[in-house]
Each structure stands twice: as C-alpha cells, then as structure tokens.
Design a protein that fits this description.
68 residues; mainly alpha
C-alpha cells in the first residue's frame, strides 16, 4: 500500500481524503480487522484447490506428458 501511495504521489495524484479506519479507536480497528480476516478465510476456504481448478478449467491432454 505504501509503495503505491508513493508512486501515485510521485505522479502528482493526491488523495482527496483518508480511509475511515484511521479515525477508529485501536480496539475498533482490531475488531474490524478480525472480522475482515474471518471473511477472507471464509472466501478462501470456499475456493477449490489449485489442482482441482486447473483440472476443471484448463485440463491438459494426458499425451503431452508422454513426449520424448
């Protein structure tokens, strides 16, 4: 995040405001981030494993492994 802010500000793109989380009490931030972490984990856990995804959406022809 910081590097992108630096890049944008170096291109004279200035933020118009700040994120509301900067105004929260530290305990509220901890609670917010805990809920966010839980939601991200739920989304990730609902995704298929990488091998399953590849098998479903981009299966390889088994013959490609037998080339010599």
């Amino acid at each position: 995040m910081d590097s992108w802010v630096s890049v944008l500000m170096g291109q004279h793109v200035e933020p118009a405001t700040w994120h509301h989380i900067a105004e929260l009490d530290p305990r509220e931030v901890k609670d917010f981030m805990g809920k966010y972490r839980t939601k991200v984990a739920e989304v990730i856990n609902a995704l298929p494993q990488h091998a399953e995804f590849v098998k479903q959406y981009a299966p390889a022809n088994p013959e490609v492994w037998n080339r010599r």
